[in-house]
Description:
The protein is α/β, with parallel strands linked by helices. The protein has 7 helices and 7 strands; from the N terminus they run βαβααβββαβααβα.
Amino acid sequence: xxxxxxxxxxxxxxxxxxxxxxxxxxxxxxxxxxxxxxxxxxxxxxxxxxxxxxxxxxxxxxxxxxxxxxxxxxxxxxxxxxxxxxxxxxxxxxxxxxxxxxxxxxxxxxxxxxxxxxxxxxxxxxxxxxxxxxxxxxxxxxxxxxxxxxxxxxxxxxxxxxxxxxxxxxxxxxxxxxxxxxxxxxxxxxxxxxxxxxxxxxxxxxxxxxx
Length: 211
């Protein structure tokens, strides 16, 4: 790989469709050309905290993430070197012992709720996207995901939403929209907007690859 890669950041509220948007862009650009990171992999290790306290932790605040590691990994990928990304266990709120090797590529994509809200991460982005989805849709998706995929009870999901998710969305996630170069309404179903973003990335690939 020659030249610096494009670094694309995709942010938006919880269950807004960020991951769907990111994966559609990756597919459109071609996965072999993309190094894909999820901000959720970089939650801080809470193994030193009693389990009941972990469950009350504010996972939607910027301080919940290991920003130093995110920045280090983005910088390493930009330099053309591979990184070992943590696998986060949402049941225990700790990183698993295994990691996933992510190889450098002409395009680096990172998605997560606070990708645009954290200045140190935002400074490394060449293209900033915000996925905008109605609040009621996001809440229902969040409940469905956390109950089915993360083994949470309905009452715990609702309690967490009102205690931390909603306040942090209003305090950090929604305001970060102003940093976006492109806003995609209606989440992962907006194929027109997704195609436009993918096209903009593809148009820059020949320059990056030195063609």
